[in-house]
TrEMBL record:
Keyword Transcription attached: yes
Species: Mogibacterium diversum
Keyword Lipid biosynthesis: no
The protein's role, per its UniProt record: May play the central regulatory role in sporulation. It may be an element of the effector pathway responsible for the activation of sporulation genes in response to nutritional stress. Spo0A may act in concert with spo0H (a sigma factor) to control the expression of some genes that are critical to the sporulation process.
Gene Ontology cellular component list: cytosol; protein-DNA complex
CDD domains xref list: trans_reg_C
Keyword entries, A-Z: DNA-binding, Phosphoprotein, Transcription, Transcription regulation, Two-component regulatory system
GO MF, one annotated term: phosphorelay response regulator activity
Family annotation (PANTHER family): DNA-BINDING DUAL MASTER TRANSCRIPTIONAL REGULATOR RPAA (PTHR48111:SF21), REGULATOR OF RPOS (PTHR48111)
GO BP, sorted A to Z: regulation of DNA-templated transcription
Name of this chain's protein: Stage 0 sporulation protein A homolog
Amino acid sequence: MKKLLVVDDEAKIREVIKEYSEFSGYEVTEAADGMSAIGLCKLNDYDLIIMDVMMPKLDGFSSVKEIKKFKDIPVIMLSARGEEYDKLFGFELGVDDYVVKPFSPKELMARVNAVITRHEGADHGTSNVMKFDGLEVNFAARTIYIDGKRVNLTPKEYDLLFYLIQNRNIALSRDKLLSDIWGYDFFGDDRTIDTHIKNLRNNLGPYRDFIVTLRGVGYKFEYEDKEK
């Protein structure tokens, strides 16, 4: 049974999410603040976290940042604020989805299912190690090495690189990247993709040029096997 951690300082919201989650076959653990969530994540493994933004003791964004330091758990943020800045900030932290209150519990569960499915696909869809000159990508272990030195990416940066490599030498539009990696096409915009590409290139260092910008279209991971 998949395990969810629901973090919100409003007991009624936790109760509603728990009810729908258990009906959908999930096991649910509750936390009323960010500090408690961090403690629970240190002790237990969860398949997904539903995290409120505005909470006492420690806000949701800060909590996610701390949790991501020691565990790669997909996260859906809940917030009464729908400003683009908040969404982009969340994406920068590696958040997988962003739901604005008030929300439909049925829609939330659909998003939970979609995020868990995508995350499992990223983890288990490819088990081999691929090398592109001095860039080494281990899909199963979710590790990246640049000239033998490990480089740490955010979960979304890893998912983006994984997808680009999986579709290497194929032109990918920003809309397709946003839809296939984030799983929706109505929250983000071109800046969401461009910001993640910029950060990913910085992390790739000398191999940043493998990610090619296609003006007016999007991006592609360009690499020709020199052994062919």
